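F.,

This is the one I mentioned.
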């Protein structure tokens, strides 16, 4: 037994297969950002663990701000702004965090004053890939030296005491995470445990943004995505239906 299928029936059948096979919606990418986070233990002092300030997320809140961090002897900042967004049509995401009037006293006894007028991190994820960058303004690093306003990825300066490395300061730290996302930390201070001269252990991160990977574009099985999908399918199927109907007409005439 052979089953014949007209052009219109073929379109309906193929459409049903596509809708049934595709997921109801494709999970889009995610993005997040925050202004500062601390987790340090200084010698002779209790641990300081401060959750991310002004945290934002593409799932909400997409924008956040904080008046300023005031942790005497460790970190002081001015206004913090963070944002994270997702483009539902393209699946792309973007996040940014900016921290103003930064002053780091954590290492001042060794390096002198470390300060910056603005510290910013941002990242973007599209269907072409991920990218991140750091922007610095008015940076003063004391004895550490100098760093560019737009430092290269993972620019590192070592902090030494009596010839022993006790900490490192990383600018534009870019981390490729296991889930495919990219994290950009504008400034990351790492305290290193050492036999001699250690100040303590832990991390201080100033301005952080995480993106992606990008999600899928408009979901094929819902909303506008469905109509676009059916429209494209119609463009392909219409000539097939026309040929089938013309052939049937020729057979009937014969």
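My design for it:
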């Amino acid at each position: 037994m052979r089953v014949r299928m007209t052009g219109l029936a073929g379109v309906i059948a193929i459409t049903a297969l596509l809708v049934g096979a595709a997921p109801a919606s494709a999970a889009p990418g995610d993005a997040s950002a925050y202004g500062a986070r601390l987790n340090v233990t200084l010698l002779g002092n209790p641990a300081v663990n401060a959750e991310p300030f002004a945290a934002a997320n593409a799932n909400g809140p997409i924008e956040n701000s904080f008046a300023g961090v005031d942790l005497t002897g460790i970190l002081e900042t001015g206004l913090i702004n963070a944002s994270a967004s997702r483009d539902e049509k393209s699946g792309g995401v973007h996040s940014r965090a900016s921290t103003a009037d930064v002053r780091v006293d954590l290492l001042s006894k060794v390096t002198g004053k470390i300060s910056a007028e603005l510290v910013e991190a941002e990242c973007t994820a599209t269907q072409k890939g991920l990218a991140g960058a750091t922007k610095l303004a008015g940076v003063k690093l004391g004895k550490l030296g100098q760093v560019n306003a737009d430092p290269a990825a993972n620019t590192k300066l070592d902090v030494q005491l009596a010839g022993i490395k006790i900490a490192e300061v990383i600018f534009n730290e870019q981390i490729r995470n296991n889930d495919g996302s990219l994290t950009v930390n504008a400034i990351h201070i790492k305290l290193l445990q050492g036999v001699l001269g250690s100040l303590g252990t832990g991390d201080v991160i100033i301005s952080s943004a995480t993106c992606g990977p990008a999600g899928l574009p408009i979901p094929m099985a819902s909303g506008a995505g469905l109509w676009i999908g059916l429209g494209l399918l119609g463009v392909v199927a219409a000539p097939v239906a026309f040929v089938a109907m013309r052939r049937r007409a020729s057979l009937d005439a014969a």
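The helical segments are 7-21, 108-111, 223-253.

Talk soon.
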